[in-house]
Design a protein that fits this description.
The chain is mainly α and 689 residues long. Helix content is 66%, strand content 4%. The protein contains 28 helices and 7 strands. The chain has a 5-stranded mixed sheet. A two-stranded parallel ribbon has the order 1-2. α9 (173-190) packs across α15 (344-385) and α12 packs antiparallel against α13 (276-303). It is globular, with a radius of gyration of 27 Å.
């Protein structure tokens, strides 16, 4: 491969991805603040300011808080000492820092892809990651932890794939696993829910998983479909939504138990070829054994109140539907059952005897650095803040128990399955938002077809086409799919989504789903690799892939330029140059210096306001003590003790919704409506003796 060309492509990638950040960093203040369009980012910045001023990890200099991801806080601590000179200066510098992380991620991704794919596909997909607005707006814009999170995910993936290709006799194997463990630990510290991806990659490394048999993949799909159908048939889609906290434990358990039963009953491998009748008998026997284990386990989980529902009919429906589908799957693939020298049980036992020491050493080498890093972080949290994990996550779980909270929204069946169709906040919205638009077009042409049904049909068609593409040319792309460890990222992403939906976590945001975005881009890179390789078979002097790469690259760069210049214009009318401070100025006018002002959020105002203190009322960046006070019904006494002087927010949210209405309704006296970005109302907080 031409080394000079590789260098040129990397220079082009670096310049294209950093240009937007450099541009935004020198725009007028009001345009610059469009980069930081989430209050959550300013939680980090205000805490960093207070730490550097010697007040400790606190948002309001009153409550110690751990409501942040630690590695991004370290970055913020390195940048926000500049706020001593000017409040805008660190914001400009952080735009560049985020841009540099985007450059590093893009270059890492390019180098990773070019090792496995067509050079043109590697370049285009890396450029897509670096500049495509729906990705750039989440991975780099906002000033959140997403930029450092995805950097470490890509770094871990790239290094892990390189490690998988090394010999088991490599003398540096343990050392390299320790390095991978350190990268994995930093990946988790960058964003704590990266734990799932890091864990699954570790399992692939530990057990050297280079392929999952086709029959196993179809079994997993059949199990998933049968369980979802059973819930819908028994309770309807509304019943499924109402009991969504119970479907995921059942689904995860069945996906674990049933393939294990199939393996040990010889449905995947055996000493002798099986007849069709033997395949059916063994499949049924394995299914019955798995059903008994699942039934008893789910019954115990229900009795322990880990799940909220236990239904005999759903379990039986799921088992019956799944058995029918799985029998057909196993009959279709019965010739693919592997022939082995021993029975599955003996084969497994021989593997354990021969490999357990190496597996144990590898597991310790990879897991120990992660355990040390995460364990130290958790102990520090417990000693300093009174909780092993960030209080923000605990609060978002608590919100899901409330009947009237603004943080929860009505969800559809597609939402529960992780297939949110729009809004940009769903796990797979980079893909599903496009399918949703196509579904709307199809539905408009067929009035009897609903938008969601059209969406579902198109998703199934795309999935089938992708599977057929993977199988083409004797599974060439499928081998690349596994060689790039895409299944590990995919499984880790599914586990992350399952955790959020199964645990009742509310108010998820777009930047949670970086691994899901990466999975979509990696799958897209395989499709583009297949397309470019096919086009280049044409016997013409100028390769079609080169022409397409140039055209697509120019379109991506132009789209990126349009996006950046529109959301952060270089010229701002004089009357709007300080518009980002409109609310801050009004609040300062109506309150006295030294006032303590409660807000549900309040990050931006807290950062810019002078001689006043913003007290976070939602608890996401407050203390464990405040969270416990809200849960125990003593939040009013907690706020009285501060003491709070004002509350600033939307009236309905403060006076009617959970949890605020219960402890604020009788304490607020309206001062007036304040114009600004949010249109909040200012209230005087009355302390009743």
């Amino acid at each position: 491969m031409n080394r000079r060309l590789i260098i040129i492509l990397q220079v082009v990638l670096a310049l294209a991805t950093i240009a937007g950040s450099i541009y935004v960093s020198v725009t007028p203040a009001n345009s610059l603040l469009n980069w930081y369009n989430s209050d959550d980012a300013f939680y980090y910045y205000k805490v960093a300011q207070n730490v550097l001023a010697g007040h400790g990890f606190t948002f309001d200099q009153i409550n110690l808080t751990n409501g942040f991801h630690p590695l991004w806080m370290v970055v913020c601590l390195g940048v926000f000492w500049l706020s001593h000179f000017n409040l805008l200066l660190p914001l400009r510098v952080l735009v560049i820092v985020s841009g540099l992380l985007n450059v590093a991620t893009t270059l890492l991704l390019f180098r990773f892809l070019k090792r496995h794919l067509h050079l043109g596909a590697a370049f285009i997909m890396a450029l897509l990651w670096g500049v495509y607005p729906p990705i750039f707006n989440v991975s780099t814009v906002l000033g959140m932890e997403s930029s450092i999170s995805i950097f470490f995910i890509v770094l871990l993936l790239s290094k892990s794939v390189s490690f998988m290709n090394r010999s088991e006799l490599d003398p540096h194997r343990s050392r390299d696993l320790v390095v991978l463990g350190l990268i994995g630990g930093l990946t988790i510290l960058a964003r704590l829910d990266n734990l799932f991806v890091v864990g699954v990659i570790g399992l692939f490394l530990l057990f050297k998983i280079r392929k999952i048999p086709t029959i196993v993949i179809f079994d997993l799909l059949a199990i998933t479909v049968s369980i979802i159908l059973a819930w819908i048939l028994r309770l309807g889609s509304e019943g499924l939504l109402a009991n969504k906290l119970s479907i995921y434990p059942m689904l995860m358990l069945c996906l674990l138990v049933r393939p294990v039963a199939f393996y040990f009953l010889g449905c995947y491998s055996g000493k002798q070829p099986l007849s069709r009748l033997q395949v059916v008998v063994r499949t049924i026997l394995a299914w019955v054994i798995a059903f008994v284990v699942e039934y008893l386990t789910l019954f115990v989980l229900f009795k322990l109140k880990i799940t909220t529902m236990f239904s005999n009919s759903i379990l039986l429906f799921g088992a019956a539907i799944g058995l029918v589908i799985v029998v057909f799957v196993h009959l279709f693939f019965y010739k693919s059952i592997l022939k082995t020298d021993n029975s599955p049980a003996i084969t497994f036992w021989n593997w354990v005897k021969a490999k357990w020491k190496n597996a144990f050493i590898d597991g310790v080498s990879y897991g120990a650095p992660i355990a040390v890093l995460i364990g130290s972080y958790m102990i520090f949290n417990r000693v300093t803040f009174g909780s092993f994990s960030p209080v923000s996550g605990q609060i978002k779980h608590w919100w899901s128990t409330m009947p009237n909270t603004v943080y929860a929204r009505a969800v559809s069946l597609l939402d529960v399955l992780g297939l949110s169709t729009g809004g940009g906040n769903g796990p797979w919205s980079l893909f599903t938002s496009k399918i949703d638009k196509a579904g709307d077009i199809v539905a408009s042409s067929f009035p009897s077809l609903s938008g969601n049904l059209a969406f579902s049909i198109i998703c199934i068609v795309v999935a089938v086409l992708f599977l057929l593409l993977m199988k083409a040319q004797d599974g060439k792309l499928a081998r690349k799919f596994f060689a790039m460890l895409i299944p590990a990222i995919l499984i880790g992403s599914i586990m992350q989504i399952t955790y959020y939906f199964a645990s009742g976590y509310t108010h998820t945001r777009g930047w949670y789903w970086m691994a899901e975005m990466l999975t979509i881009v990696l799958c897209g890179s395989l499709v583009l690799d297949g397309l470019f390789s096919w086009l280049d078979q044409a016997k013409i002097k100028l390769k079609p892939s080169l022409v397409l790469s140039v055209l697509i690259g120019l379109v991506l760069v132009f789209t990126h330029f349009q996006f950046v210049t529109r959301f952060a214009p270089m010229i701002v009318p004089e009357e709007k140059q300080a518009y980002y401070l409109a609310e801050v100025t009004e609040v300062e006018f109506y309150t006295q210096p030294g006032s303590r002002i409660g807000m549900t959020g309040g990050g931006l105002i807290a950062y810019f306001i002078q001689d006043r203190t913003i007290v976070n009322l939602d608890g996401l960046i407050s203390s464990v003590e405040y969270y416990n006070a809200m849960k125990s019904g003593t939040a009013t006494q907690f706020l009285d003790a501060i003491p709070l002087n004002y509350v600033f927010g939307k009236p309905y949210m403060l006076l009617e919704s959970d949890p605020y209405g219960s402890f604020l309704k009788d304490r607020l006296e309206e001062v007036g409506y304040i114009r600004g970005n949010e249109g909040f109302t200012l209230f005087k907080y009355r302390i009743i003796q």
